[in-house]
Specification:
Blueprint (H helix, E strand, L loop, with lengths): L6 H15 L9 H15 L6 H6 L4 H13 L5 H14 L5 H20 L3 H8 L11 H8 L19 H5 L6 H10 L1 H4 L23 H7 L3 H4 L2 H12 L2 E2 L13 E2 L14 H25 L7 H31 L1 H26 L2 H12 L2 H8 L7 H38 L6 H12 L3 H11 L4 H32 L2 H17 L13 H7 L8 H15 L1 H12 L8 H4 L6 H18 L26 E5 L5 E5 L5 H51 L1
Antiparallel strand pairs: 1-2, 3-4
Helix pairs in contact: 2-5, 4-6, 5-6, 5-12, 14-24, 15-16, 15-19, 15-24, 16-17, 16-24, 17-18, 20-21, 20-23, 20-24, 21-22, 22-23
Length: 713
């Protein structure tokens, strides 16, 4: 390509160089390649730390806008959002280089992700957000087919077994509990394996990005803590659509059904598929917990020592159903999404306490030991500490409570960290005081005295300080009281207040994040049939043993039949709710528009117009007054929305394309300049008036001050 020797040509050449630096992403490129290309761009282009506001209101965000425009006009690869959010997680956990620059890169990835998504139509956004990352092209066909032929016990990521061929055997034997650790290790090493190798060496087969195969963009957003991304309107519309059942993953219930995101239509959807709607799952979960709590109180009130009553048997059934449902949820949602929800920790403790109660109760009944039986009921009484809050977990859907829960969680983490320092100092003082008072107090007594002093009863310490040691006891006790009651307690309050303020300052983001986790946990399972507890014991007791005798396809048919028979009343209840006047559902496809945003349509039209002019051999500048010689410069390759256009004054301006030719563009530029000049003139007049008003106010204040001084004299 030949350029004329002129400043304008030099500018255009630098623009071509800038286009060359953009990531080359094809529509069919795999996730691994997309991540590699995007990572190079962010590392090369972002070398200084910026804030979120600077990316929005200053020129620091121009590179991100240009990248979004370029990708919108050049590719619609569905893994772009997943790749960007994966890189966000990577940069936020990266420990090398300047942490501020890594945070800036992570922020930039998240900004580009939601800006790119906002430039798509709503239906396209649904496809991008719910698209599962496919395996590599060289992955065996058996693994690819296993995605569609999932068993009823398959995890959220069969997906978990989708790896490179060299890692299949090791990962198949890896426990599920290590999933998040594997993901975090993959993210941490992401930047090491991504660059193109030199000297002819092959890239390692164990590419860390393979750990993300099978995840959707929303799941990666949750585990990468992309709260700004999840807080965008289009994302929340999608999540709300999943919550209400407007977007479903199963159209009907039969042995050939495959999981895929689709819009709900009453005419083409199976009514039993509505059992998988997260809203109805949570409603019936609440009913289940109400009955659970009632049985719990009845058993504790009766406290039968000699026999197991009917209500206690029902309580055991509820415990078993709850444990089975929790295990299915753990296997279905995966460790990453499952571990984020704080209520799942409550569920695990409820199951642990219930198992301890049943074991102690059985041992006491066999030995006929009343003391063991009393201990069993005492253990059961601890359930109220977790069951009552768990019953109220639906309050997490309300903004106020959904904000408080992350605040409490963050405060508990900071409290545990701070208590480490307190424990170290406490052990040091306890050792000293115990040795000094070895003749007067035992270790247990001294521990209790110092504990009461720590919690504010300073008088206890002052009363025994002379008994500890006449000389060293008083000064050491004064130091201990000052350090605990003044220094440590005050510091702890400040730390907890800072944690609360930091979370509460982003109240809406925290609420939407909790809400997103709540919905995704209930909707992303790969299991076709979902039995509501306590009916989930039916497949466990009756259908489970049949796996040894019949093939998986026949078992699937039996499970579907059992689900339809056992859940027929629930299905009719859901049908009645949706057909009531306030439950009139529209088709999901009518709620999500396929119309592109105005900016995207103008951008695409302008790019097509410029490409047509380039193909016809015309100058890219149609303005006859342009100073660029026609025919000297021709564009090769795609043209983005960011072009260097010049006015007749010879000044370089970056403008967004608003028409199909440069004449219209220049007209719009001139019109905007005129409007801007009018606004500046009006603003200058207002400033002049304000300055005059301030001067008059100051002169009046001075005159009044002089009058008061004369009056005082």
């Amino acid at each position: 390509m030949t350029f004329p020797a002129s400043p304008i040509a030099d500018e255009l050449y630098s623009g071509e160089q800038w286009l060359a630096d953009l990531p080359k992403i094809g529509p069919d490129d795999h996730f691994v390649d997309v991540v590699r290309e995007l990572s190079k761009f962010f590392v090369d282009e972002i070398t200084l730390p910026y804030t979120f506001e600077q990316f929005h209101i200053t020129s620091a965000g121009d590179k991100l806008r240009n990248l979004v425009d370029y990708m919108i006009t050049n590719t619609k690869n569905k893994v772009i959002i997943s790749a960007l959010l994966t890189l966000k997680w990577h940069f936020s956990t990266l420990e090398i280089d300047d942490p501020r620059i890594n945070e800036t890169r992570a922020m930039a990835c998240e900004i580009v992700a939601w800006r790119y998504l906002s430039r798509l139509s709503e239906r396209e956004a649904v496809d991008f957000c719910l698209y599962e990352i496919p395996p590599l092209s060289d992955t065996s066909q058996s693994l690819r087919s296993s995605w569609t032929d999932v068993s009823e016990r398959s995890q959220l990521l069969p997906r978990f077994s989708s790896r490179l061929q060299s890692r299949q055997d090791a990962l198949l034997t890896r426990p599920t509990s290590s999933r998040r650790d594997e993901m975090e290790e993959a993210v941490h090493n992401l930047g090491v394996a991504l660059p193109t190798p030199q000297n002819g060496h092959k890239r390692p087969k164990g590419d860390p990005t393979s750990s993300f195969i099978g995840l959707t963009s929303l799941e990666i957003a949750v585990v990468s803590d992309s709260k700004k991304f999840l807080g965008q309107d289009i994302i929340q519309k999608i999540i709300t659509g999943i919550w209400r059942g407007d977007i479903m993953f199963w159209a009907d219930l039969n042995e050939h059904t495959e999981k895929k995101p689709q819009f709900y239509t009453r005419e083409n959807s199976d009514q039993f598929a509505r059992l998988r709607v997260p809203k109805y799952i949570k409603i019936f979960e609440f009913v289940f917990f109400v009955v659970f709590l009632m049985l719990y109180y009845v058993v504790l009130m009766e406290r039968d020592m000699r026999r197991i009553c009917f209500f206690e048997i029902l309580l055991y059934v509820w415990f078993a159903a709850f444990a089975c449902d929790e295990f299915s949820g753990f296997m279905g949602a995966g460790t990453m999404v499952y571990s984020i929800d704080i209520w799942n920790g409550f569920d695990a403790v409820i199951i642990l306490i219930g198992a301890s109660f049943m074991v102690a109760r059985a041992v006491g009944m066999l030995k006929r030991d009343d003391e063991i039986i009393n201990t069993a009921f005492d253990i059961l009484s601890l359930e109220a500490l977790f069951m009552v809050p768990r019953l109220c977990s639906l309050l997490s859907l309300l903004p106020y409570f959904a904000t408080l829960i992350p605040c409490l969680k963050a405060m508990v983490k900071d409290f545990v960290k701070f208590m480490t320092i307190v424990g170290i100092l406490f052990v040091g003082f306890l050792t000293t005081f115990s040795l000094l008072a070895r003749e007067s107090f035992t270790l247990r007594e001294m521990s209790w005295v110092l504990t009461k002093v720590f919690f504010g009863q300073s008088s206890e310490g002052f009363a025994v300080m002379h008994q500890i040691d006449p000389r060293l006891g008083p000064p050491l006790m004064i130091v201990f009281v000052c350090m605990t009651n003044i220094l440590l307690i005050t510091s702890l309050v400040c730390v907890l207040r800072e944690s609360f303020s930091k979370i509460f300052a982003n109240a809406r983001q925290e609420y939407l994040y909790v809400y997103s986790v709540y919905v995704l946990e209930a909707s992303t399972s790969n299991s076709l049939t979902y039995f509501y507890p306590p009916l989930n014991l039916i497949p466990l007791v009756l259908i489970g043993p049949l796996r040894l005798l019949f093939p998986a396809q026949d078992i699937r048919k039996v499970r579907i039949l059992a689900l339809k028979i056992s859940h027929l009343p629930i299905s009719y209840a859901i049908w009645a709710l949706e057909h009531l006047p306030w439950g009139d559902y529209k088709s999901g496809e009518h709620l999500f528009s396929d119309r592109l945003p105005e900016t995207t349509r103008i951008l695409i039209d302008s790019v097509k117009a410029k490409e047509n002019r380039t193909k016809n051999g015309e100058s890219i500048f149609s303005d006859p007054q342009s100073r660029v010689p026609s025919g000297n410069i021709t564009h090769q390759g795609p043209v983005t929305a960011v072009n260097k256009d010049f006015t007749e004054a010879g000044m370089l301006k970056e403008v967004n394309i608003k028409g199909k030719d440069c004449a219209t563009e220049i007209t719009l530029v001139r019109k905007r300049e005129a409007e801007l000049e009018e606004k500046v003139a009006a603003l200058s007049a207002q400033i002049t008036e304000l300055t005059a008003l301030i001067m008059r106010s100051q002169s009046r204040t001075q005159s009044l001050a002089g009058h008061d001084a004369g009056f005082n004299d």
